[in-house]
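User: Fold this; tokens only.

Assistant: Input:
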Amino acid sequence: MTTIKDIAERAGVSTATVSNVIHGNTKKVSPATIELIENLIKEMGYVQKMGLSVLNNSSSKMVAVVIHTHKNYEDAVISDPFYGTIIGFIEEKLRLLGYYMLLYSTDDVNEVFRTVMAWNIDGVIALSFSRNDCNKIWHLIHKPVVCIDAYGISHDDTPVTNIGLDDSTGGALMSEYLLQCGYENILVCATNDYGVDYSRWTGAREMFEELTAGNKEKKIRLINIGETQITRESFYQQLLRQIPFPTKTAAFFLSDYFAIEAISYLGSKGIRVPADLGIAGFDDINYAHLTVPKLTTIHQNMERKAELAVTELLSAIQNPIYMGKEVLLDVMLIARDSI
């Protein structure tokens, strides 16, 4: 394996000079020497030992991607198609820009705080945290932090950026579409009543109320389906007992994963979607077009979300006076066969 000493001997310079070029400390190194050393690094196949840059105070080229898991997962968090897709895009874009990803997920936010403080990272991409927790990460490490789908209200002016989604409009689009399709009873199925779920529910409810103008024959309800497979199956069994519904009913799941699970469970019990019950989702994950029937859903561009998170983080790393911002990406309705 090629070492710094090997490169120094070929270049006829000290090992300190080679090390300075590798780490970007080139104020006292001539352009010709820099070019010579960089060419030798490529020619001789030198690979920097990441452990050394992580332990010292130089740029580690490492970004922590941390996930605050709110759901109970029977498998790993990245088995969720949403998180798996986002993480995949983030890793790809970081790698292409010469950065490495440290991935950490937990339901204990204090563990996240300890982890980001323990490593010499250049910045943090935080998924599914409250804005205040994202701000706390910045206060603990004073390094750039970019959030994806942060929720709540920020109580200080830290330079933290959030890459989110126009969730309220997504809920409104689906509510409008379901009414246009003749549904009179809409069950909005969520795992909690805060964060993006709350925004999606609020948008759906407000649009429904605007379009029905107080028509008491048409109803929209928020249903908490729980975070475990057992609680969700209990909900599906309740649906079974109500079929056939007295009015045309649709279940609007605020996550494609659970909409797909419902289609599978109900189909195994002989329920026809959409003839007996309409089912819709939110996110347009990779599996949404593979279900039978194919899932009607709200599309979000997950690759664009990941790309913006990486771009904004690197801008903050390179710019000491970077100011935080709020970015909300557009959504669109994808009409398929489950409605």
